[in-house]
Amino acid sequence: MTTKLMGTGVQRVEDQRFLRGLGRYADDVAVDPSTLHAAVLRSPHAHARIVDIDVADVLDVEGVHAVWTYDDLTGPMAEPLPLLIPHPMLTHGRTQYALAKDEVNYVGEAIAFVVADDRYVAEDAVGKIKVSYELLPPVVGIDAARAADRLVHDDVPGNVGARMEQNTGDVQAAMAAAPHRLTLDLTVERSACMPMEGRGTVARWDPDIDRLQVWSSTQTSTGVRAVVAVKLGLDLRQVDVITPDVGGGFGVKINHPWPEELLVPLAARTLGRTVKFTEDRREHFISTAHERGQVQYIEVGFDDDGRLLALDVKFWHDHGAYTPYGLIVPIITSTQLLGPYKPEVYRVVFESLYTNTVMVTPYRGAGRPQGCFAMERTMDAIAAELGKDRTEVRAVNFIQPDEFPFEQGLVFQDGRELTYDSGDYPASLEKIKALIGWDEFPAFRAEMAAEGRQVGIGLACYVEGTGVGPYEGAHVHVETSGKVKVATGLTTQGQGHATVFAQLVADELGCRFEDVEVVTGDTRRMPYAVGTFASRAAVMSGSAIHLAAKRAKEKALKIAAEALEASPDDLQIVDGVVSVKGSPGSSIDLGTVAVLSNPLRYAFDEASKAATQFTVGDPGKPPVAEDEEPGLEGTDFYSPERSTFASGMHAVIVETDPLTAEIRILKYAVVHDCGKLINPMIVEGQIHGGVAQGVGGALYERMVYDESGQLLNASFMDFLMPYVTEVPDGIDIDHLETPSPLNPLGIKGAGEAGVIPSAAVFASAIEDAESIPITAMPISPSELFHLRLTHAEETP
Amino acid sequence: MKPAPFAYVRPGSLADALSALAGDPGAKVLAGGQSLVPLLSMRLAAPSTLVDINGLPGLDAVTVTADGVRVGALARHADVLAHDEAARVQPLLRLALSHVAHATIRNRGTTVGSIVHADAAAEMPVVLTLLGGSVEVAGPSGTRTIPATDLYVGPLETCLAQDEIATTAFFPALAPGARVAFAEIARRHGDYALVGAAALVDGDSVRVGYVSVGDVPTVVDLTGVPLNEMAATALAQLDPADDIHATAAYRAQLVRVLTERVVTEARTDD
Ligand SMILES: Cc1cc2nc3c(=O)[nH]c(=O)nc-3n(C[C@H](O)[C@H](O)[C@H](O)COP(=O)(O)OP(=O)(O)OC[C@H]3O[C@@H](n4cnc5c(N)ncnc54)[C@H](O)[C@@H]3O)c2cc1C
Fold first, then answer.
1. Is the ipTM, as predicted for this complex, more than 0.90?
2. Is residue B112 within 6 Å of ligand 1 at its C-beta?
């Protein structure tokens, strides 16, 4: 047998292409000069009524082909965009129109859509549209939304889109009985996904076949296809959606359809031309989506050991102007907040609030970073209150390895019970303490103090529900050349799916890794799919691909068994050759098996002669048996009962400058458990990227809105993504593998993990360095400087 | 993010460049483009003509003499940074330039462009002012030399006329026995400074130039002021402001820290 590829750090097959600049993104599609380009007029006001739109000057601009405003939209296009996840508790869900109707609710909302010869002309034309507005008072920030002196939507009282409560018992009674109690007021600010490639859509209508081809930089091609067909009044069969290479998504591209994702196909169909929209960076800031913003209030009751007796959490979630993605983010915060712990009683109440700002949809971590922040700040506060080591307080609250499956008694984002499948939190804690040098830290602190330097250590733990349903599918096709073509419907944004999925196919089918080619996100190849989000690709498509490869293998063995006159049980497939175990002379390669699998009337080359009616099959039986299909293929779907729960712990040592309040990272460590590893190198890459993004979220990135709802830092000049010089030089990583019992490979998701505990772990370490409570993230040197001043005033 | 329409010319001589500028009151010089092109793309600037000076002969030299360093209008930040002779004659150039942006931007952006762009958050205008340098300017009626102290008139504004081209910046050599130091604090490596400070110590004379604490590059004479009072003296003449990255109070703190740091360093023999 060849060695298994599962668990080995196979080099990424994608990298040659990407590193040589041969990636092909939406903007690289249809580059010929006949393609038309779109630009969008966006609202300059956060809240206003549209009194009049005058496009008269635009049509005179040379090179302009068409302009659309709301009044030009008809049928389903004139309806609000879909509310994708209509949770029953979302009592006041609102979505925008493809082009604003009567009112705009955030700076950046699309008002008019211009199609021209090129983007330059389209932008010139946008500048000539005259809109008169009647300004309305904007609601900016959670405080203003809660105060509700002003409303975002007239028909949404109190700006409350949804109020939701879950509890596992009588929290008031448990709180009253607890020997110790604490409260915390916490804040997490807004940030956003910043993929290198923004949104992009290209569409081409082919009048000869009445068919629309759409390329979109999306995390769900099947989702885009369904909505384009519905909105344009086309049959699903008339629409193909292809996801080319995608330069990052981080969650924001799972929301769909963006206005442009419908308007580009509409324009292509109306004008009979290929039309392209490529978002620029400013548009990404003001017209896509943000996340993270929450205000939290926590009351906790605990015993002398720090055991959680009652945990009562209220939080207010800023969801921006609209709610196309439902309540996913706050529901995840409210449920995943519990992490690896088991409070006796837990109650959580949240309000999801409207503001006149860019809407909120999931960003890597999707509500978990905020939940982790709430829980881990609470753990640190308990430890401080009791004078105990922070790791001890966590340890007494862990769910123990023998308690799985563990029911938290809550309902998760997928509407199913929040039941953890497996994990070993005490083992993770031991590992992270060793990696970061937890027990040696006091000595290090003293050493640094002697040099006049100030350091702190922090720790944060999380559990992440990954691999949510409903399903993914896969199609594995062995061609007569022996090459294996694999298709799965979810999309790829750089994760290395073509590598890990090929590993799984090579292992299961027995073909050569090099012979496997994986296609994702192309509805022509796999029309049934959900999408890439919630750390689900490896779990969902990985499992489906494994199952589909197994079917192809079974078929190959059956056909080969006949050809070799052996029992299928005696056969093996190694490096693409089926042979009888123990007698290697008796063999047939997979390509020939594929030839035999498809009885032919017409031979087209030497190999196919072997499959004509004169050569294969029993003349007394139908060439294709009753319950068989021609072709060496396997299709299967994977649909799990519920999510699988990955977990991990991060620790960091920071140094804070006593004079300038600059914050430096001295050491960063991660212990990570995503079940069985398919490719440890790729998992570590995901962790590295997540940690870098987490450093950004904790120490640099924020969305600065002024009172009028203008985003003041809508460029990379002022939205501070960390450079390579700001992220840790090295990240010490250790893996734990507690297999998931829920899928055939024992795997759990790994995509989001790296970013979940960042705000919590940095707050913990900075608090430790400074001995000042850290209750709001992100934190800048300027803010830390002011915290010191306030703290010094308060503690004489 | 595409610029509004503009005409583009790339003259081959200084005379042609000057007449192109004179021919259109909406014309603007394009040098390295590292400040201008982003402004065009965001449509914050919309000149009717861009006069690209990158084809002008003889402007890319960095010339070092005993009296100082002459930087031609087409010399890139990277050229000046890498120039060992320039660093020897005036060490502050290299000390400050290593804080200007990132390698890719320094490869295109010109030092003279930075000086005439007159951003108070930029390093080189402060360096020129502290050292008492000057800029040579060509215009329709000939050339003139503008001392740095007269150059800066307001935020992003110099006394250059629209039809003038800066051809050379002159940085005087460091006097024998004099010493310099530079330090800055930025949010990320290579970002514009939250606050920067450059010190020039020559015998008893102590002068410090500040980046990002006022509308124009500001130099404060701290001669005779005790070290522990220098920052207070400087702050009395500076105007740190709030922005989204730092408060005025925090900037004042950085002025305190950096003033002491650069003066101490400039006074220390190495
Ligand atoms: C990401 C980024 C980070 C940066 N960080 C820093 C930093 O930390 N510190 C810093 O100092 N700078 C920084 N810069 C700016 C950089 O230094 C620019 O190169 C410099 O400001 C302008 O030089 P330029 O040659 O690119 O000028 P251009 O962009 O071509 O021109 C700038 C302006 O000066 C005028 N101009 C240019 N040359 C002449 C001339 N010879 N005569 C008359 N007018 C002229 C132009 O008309 C224009 O108005 C940064 C730039 C970027 C993009």
1. yes
2. yes
